[in-house]
Amino acid sequence: MPGHHTRTHDATATVTVTAERTSADRDTWVTTGRAARELCLKRSEFDLAVRLGRIRTARDDCGGGRRVARAEIERLRAGPGFPETLRRSVRAVGTTEGAALMEVPKTRFTRLARLGLLVPVSFRLNRYRAVVWLYPAEELGLFRADGRNAQLLTGRTPESLRSRLDAGLDLRPRNWRARHLGHLLRQADDPWARAGAVASLLDPLHVSQVVEDLCDRSHLGRFREQPPAHGAPGSPAAHLARDLMTARDPDEIAWLQADLARLTQEARDHRPAPRPAPRRPGPAPRTPRAAEPARGKLRGLLGRWRRWRR
């Protein structure tokens, strides 16, 4: 039948176009695992490169996580000194190795980090659940090479800085959060996702103080990022990771709340949060009919009336 053949032809054409599009996507995009192999990076090095903004990724529209453009891989492979240069740029070191790299005692290295002069890029928890901060080795080398930092590396720590350290100052968690937020914002490709990135660093109570509408807040919660995985969900290690990701200082909270208010308004203007459908009015309640007098009672009244008439 002509109609049947037409429908078959249309379905075949659709399948062909879809297959061609899938094949083109394979040629244009690769998974993060394959990208790491082609860039001669360990998975941890690849993840750190993404966190530092060295490698650009994009969301997979098919729900398969992140992916990397073939052009991005070719750009990195064409760089001078590949792959050694790329691997050096994403090397992260702890306090001991970092102090050796900068040729300073570990105590001085820790003081510089607590003062916020050295910014961690990630952290891990050791077997005692103590936080081990990791720093980009390349940044440490640049800090040491800068002549303006010579006094901080070899001389006596200024009194103004020592007094802040004595008061318990430690900017490592806050600086890590700021760097992590930059990573989340680079990954966000939607106004609600950008607002969710900022909300990820705030306690739910502080979010509710800014985003008062329940529907907006519920929709925003879909885009809140979880802390980097440490331990099983609900474990002490996971709670510690959540605590490190949550802003604590009043000025940091106020800054994040101001950003969240602005980004949430931009997200509303772009696409309002979904709201529940209005409830349809139900049928009007039936009016109960007046109760009829019982037959026995009616007969009794009628009999008394007849006797009275007699």
How are the elements arranged and paired?
Elements: H1 2-28, E1 29-31, H2 32-38, H3 43-51, E2 58-59, E3 66-69, H4 70-77, H5 84-89, E4 92-93, H6 95-102, H7 106-114, E5 122-125, E6 131-136, H8 137-145, H9 150-154, H10 159-166, H11 172-187, H12 191-199, H13 204-210, H14 214-221, H15 236-245, H16 250-270, H17 295-309
Antiparallel strand pairs: 1-3, 2-3, 4-6, 5-6
Helix pairs in contact: 6-7, 12-16, 13-16
The CA-CA distance between the termini, in Å, is 95 Å
Tally the helices: what do you get?
17
pLDDT averaged residue by residue? 87
Stretches where pLDDT is under 50 for at least 5 consecutive residues are: 13-21
What structural class is derived from the secondary structure elements?
A: mainly alpha
User: How large is the radius of gyration?
Assistant: 33 Å
Order of the strands making up the biggest sheet = 1-3-2
- Biggest pleated-sheet summary: 3 strands, antiparallel
- Share of residues in helices: 55-70%
Task: Please give the number of β-strands.
Answer: 6
What share of residues are in beta strands?
5-15%
Task: Count up the domains.
Answer: 3
Outline:
extended
User: What is the succession of H and E elements?
Assistant: HEHHEEHHEHHEEHHHHHHHHHH
Biased composition (Pro residues): 274-286
InterPro entries: DUF6397
Biased composition (Low complexity): 287-302
Protein name: DUF6397 family protein
